[in-house]
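Example 3.2
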Amino acid sequence: MKSYWLIALAVIGLLLSSGCSAPKVESPPKAAIIDQLSVLRENPEFISRTRQSLEAMGFQVDTYTSDQVTVGFYRQLPAKGYKLIIFRVHSGILGVREGAEINITEGTWLFTSEEYSAAKYPQEQLTKQMGMARIDASYPWVFAIGAEFVKRSMKGKFPGTVVIAMGCSGLRLTDLAESFVNKGASVFVGWQATVDLAYTDDATLALVQKLVQLPIKEAVSQTMAEKGPDPTWGAILKYYPPQQGDRMVKELIR
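Structure, written as tokens:
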């Protein structure tokens, strides 16, 4: 009999406990700092202070260093669930070599740190989702991804994600920005010309600090008023699409 009552009590206790549930606790939104440019110049102060500002906005922050920024990393990036992404990544309007000449292509590209090989990713290369790129003669050729890669090869969406591109000419054209927005991103912030690395670190940190309390348009305009255009190249910070300018980050990531 004892065993019978013990079993009965255990069952009753189980039934009683199953009727109660703990209150749902929402996880904080996640942000990523993708630091492909750490191979060129590390800036731990930038990373630390940017992290502090993002945490002040309520974000849980992950940081990725250069060796982690591969084609596969970009492919899986949407699945990681970030609501704000800072690309400290070399970028630009890529050229195509034809003999001794380099012809400019009408497209914007984000660098990886994965060394280029003509034998890898043949389908993506043939469909102009990817190309070869190099920071300068001191560094090897690496893969770079374009708007078509974001559209066709990135797995998943970026729902309500704020994207900040720190590299050169991220918004000289709107193709890359459009590809992220079409994947669900709320806004894309970037430079419309070549930008110096030390300058973009300084200006981007100022921008992120202002985004704690200001909408996109005001944060961008105040950053430009405070820092001025890039002193060497004249780059100016822009955002896309323009109708998002009056919204705060906390509104954009909903």
